[in-house]
Specification:
about 300 residues, alpha/beta, two-stranded parallel ribbon
């Protein structure tokens, strides 16, 4: 049975999720409409442990962290870039951040890679912001690609959520670098089915298996990515969403959607445009031609 008092309690902590409690109840009912009673109870309990970050809440956090370091020296603010350069949530938050606080446009750097190392010589602190760090790999890869810019600096990493795995990797990484890393986070994201978090130890395995099978059944309808997002990408088992998107680290039963099923957290559909597909085909053709030439076939 769905407990309305518990929904009310969740809503009080996540008020930007919907305009009123009635809308929250409606979304939950639609989301759970195609589930068995057992699946419903497990998903509902997982939902009560989830977190939704609205825009006001996010930039309230960033403003607080900004106030703590704004006078700590010469600061510049930049984005965490993907290895294949593309616009991502870090770029979006950087732009929104400039609107939310009184920071000089000269201190906003959309990409460090377009600057010379001499230009950052007198910088004391480099601040980067993002929504979630899932595995830590993207951040570490990015740091490694710009080490010459970071040397001797203090790098502040502002994130709303950081998984336990990512935090461990970043702390381990910190021991081998020549810059200081300060990580600010609002929530440590535990795995949904870890010991004594949402469920008691004795019931974890069964409940995890129920949701794993439920998600496998959802993804049967798709030709691609059948197993990639079971229990969240790379088995992340996160329970978080943001006003602009839901990360694929979150349990896919929260964001999977089709013509029959409504998600509780919305996730944007990432589509490759025509030029990207054409470039991909050209690259594949070049690779095939190169291999053929290498093997003496042409």
């Amino acid at each position: 049975m769905i407990d309305n008092k518990k929904i009310q309690s969740w809503y009080e902590k996540n008020k930007e999720f919907e305009k009123n409690i009635e809308e929250v109840n409606k979304k939950i009912s639609l989301w759970l409409s195609d589930t068995t009673e057992e699946q419903k109870q497990i998903l509902f309990k997982l939902f009560l442990n989830s977190r939704f970050y609205g825009k006001k809440n996010i930039f309230s956090r960033f403003r607080t962290w900004y106030e703590q370091i704004k006078d700590a020296g010469y600061n510049i603010y930049t984005a965490i870039e993907s290895q294949k350069y593309r616009h991502n949530s870090s770029h979006m938050f950087l732009y929104e951040f400039t609107l939310a606080v009184d920071v000089s446009e000269d201190d906003i750097k959309h990409s460090l890679k377009y600057m010379s190392v001499d230009e950052v010589k007198y910088v004391d602190n480099i601040i980067m912001m993002d929504d979630i760090i899932g595995t830590g790999k993207t951040v570490i890869d990015f740091f490694n690609s710009i080490l010459e810019y970071l040397s001797g600096k203090t790098v502040y990493l502002w994130v709303l959520c950081c998984t336990e795995e990512a935090l461990y990797k970043l702390k381990e990484y910190e021991s081998g670098i020549d810059f200081k890393l300060e990580i600010k986070y609002d929530r440590i994201e535990k795995k949904a089915f870890c010991k004594d978090y949402v469920f008691n130890e004795g019931e974890i395995e069964h409940k995890k298996e129920v949701i794993e099978n439920f998600e496998k059944n959802l993804w049967k309808k798709r030709r691609k990515n059948k197993d990639e997002f079971i229990l969240g990408k790379d088995d992340s088992q996160c329970l978080v969403s943001f006003y602009n998107d839901t990360p694929n680290n979150t349990l896919s039963s929260f964001w999977y959607e089709d013509e029959k099923r409504q998600a509780i957290f919305k996730r944007k559909i990432k589509k490759k445009n025509k030029s990207t597909r054409l470039n991909s085909k050209k690259r594949k053709r070049r690779e095939e031609n190169y291999k053929a030439k290498e093997n003496g076939y042409v």
